[in-house]
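Feature request, filed as a ticket because there's no other form

It would be nice if the structure record came with a short human-readable summary line next to the tokens. Right now we just get the raw output. Example of a typical job, pasted below so the devs can see what we mean:
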Amino acid sequence: MEPALTNLVISPEAMAGIEARLGKLVRDASATCALLLDHSGQIIGVSGDTDGRQLVSLGALLAGNFASAREIARLLKEPRFTVCLHQGEREHVLTSLVGDRCLLSVLFAVRGQLGLVKFLSARASDDLAVMVEAGRRQAMASGLDAKSFRQAAERSIDSWLRERDGGGLG
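Raw output as currently delivered:
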């Protein structure tokens, strides 16, 4: 059974490390870009050329595709699939599991070497899994969890509404 989707909060220090690791993967693999996604497809981090790409839609579709692959694995009585590959005429996309919480998608040109991208992505996935978990723990220890963000957002919205309406909500 897959873990339930949660609001993932990562410390700013960990985010800097995650983005640096994604950048290293893009450079080493000569990839177009790399995306770190949560299981719902929300973008956690990105590096590389994203110009003109609809990243929000791409993230959601890649996560949905990976969810379909999980179901296929279940039907085939496989414990899970850890990698999905899409091969196009100009560009390929390799998506791999990162720990239990995330996905790593690497977009690379057809001229790129699939074996190298798979190898480097596997190494990056291992590193990113450790970084995401450490960042999540740092955020929780600092009081930066999803509940505190939600409460702060609600207070900000309430305050803005009071200001906008001249002190009243109606």
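Something like this underneath would help us a lot:
The chain has four helices and five strands.
The longest strand covers residues 91-98.
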